[in-house]
């Protein structure tokens, strides 16, 4: 599914009555099946754009569309993965994963089949009856990703989903996400503060300016004439092209 941000701007008023200009005149088109990573300094409006694409927020200027239809409210077609897992501690992992389908009115038998498939996909099949507090942070994030995948959205919006994890777990989940994106052909909008992560994961990297945020760099990740995701992450990082893109992206980030 194709996502479009058309001259999106957003201002909000703080509790003290101050007007904050979060995003300014931002236009981006993300074609069907593309994995786009967004980097930029804290407070530059990355999450504001994600909320607009999710339908959680109506911008004060411009708008967003999915396949040409205006985005005005949340939809099962757009799954959101947050920085923190947001799992219900009193429900089992399986029940958490099935929750979106339950809200959509999907029958219990189909919910069980689809959740089993995704729990297997993310490596949590053996922990389906566990409670979230019995899992590590990385496993909880896998459960959140499985919950989104179980609803089979065309678009996945991810707000620094690996930011709070240790380096090893983060690398493992990056590999899981690359595999999932290859298999599923999802359109992915992924926010991160890590330039390396953005280049390893993305088909394309967007860099945003300090507030009011706007896109100041839009660079494709095409390494050695081969689509970046076709390479192993270690091969990718070792390439001269990776270092060149990293320098280009890092130098565009104004803190």
Structure overview:
- This is ABC transporter ATP-binding protein.
- It holds the Pfam family ABC_tran.
- It comes from Oceanitalea stevensii.
- This protein is α/β, with parallel strands linked by helices.
- The protein has 2 domains: 3-77 and 154-252, P-loop containing nucleotide triphosphate hydrolases (Rossmann fold, 3-Layer(aba) Sandwich), CATH 3.40.50; 87-152, no CATH class.
- The protein is built from 8 helices and 12 strands.
- It has helices at residues 46-54, 93-103, 108-121, 137-150, 167-184, 195-201, 233-238, 240-252; strands at residues 3-13, 19-30, 35-39, 61-66, 69-70, 78-81, 155-159, 187-191, 204-208, 215-220, 222-223, 226-227.
- Strands 6-7-8-3-9-10 form a 6-stranded mixed β-sheet, with helices on both faces. A 4-stranded antiparallel β-sheet has the order 2-1-4-5, with helices on one face. A two-stranded antiparallel sheet has the order 11-12.
- The protein is globular and about 45 Å long.
- It starts with a strand and ends with a helix.
């Amino acid at each position: 599914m194709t996502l479009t941000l058309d001259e999106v701007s957003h201002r909000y008023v703080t509790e003290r009555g101050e007007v904050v200009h979060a995003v300014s005149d931002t236009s981006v088109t993300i074609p069907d099946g593309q994995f786009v990573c967004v980097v930029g300094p804290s407070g530059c409006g990355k999450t504001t754009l994600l909320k607009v694409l999710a339908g959680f927020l109506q911008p004060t200027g411009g708008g967003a569309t999915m396949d040409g239809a205006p985005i005005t409210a949340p939809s099962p077609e757009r799954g959101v993965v947050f920085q923190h897992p947001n799992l219900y501690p009193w429900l089992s992992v399986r029940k958490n994963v099935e929750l979106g389908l339950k809200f959509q009115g999907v029958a219990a038998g189909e919910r069980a089949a689809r959740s089993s498939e995704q729990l297997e996909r993310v490596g949590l099949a053996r922990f389906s009856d566990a409670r979230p507090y019995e899992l590590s942070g990385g496993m909880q994030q896998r459960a959140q990703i499985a919950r989104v995948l179980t609803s089979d959205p065309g678009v996945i919006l991810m707000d620094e989903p690996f930011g709070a994890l240790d380096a090893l777990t983060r690398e493992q989940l990056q590999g899981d996400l690359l595999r999932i994106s290859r298999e599923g052909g999802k359109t992915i909008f992924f926010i991160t503060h890590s330039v390396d992560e953005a280049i390893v994961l993305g088909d394309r990297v967007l860099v945003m300016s300090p507030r009011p945020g706007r896109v100041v760099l839009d660079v494709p990740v095409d390494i050695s004439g081969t689509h970046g995701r076709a390479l192993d992450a270690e091969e990718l990082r070792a390439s001269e092209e990776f270092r060149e893109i990293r320098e280009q992206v890092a130098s565009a980030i104004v803190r």
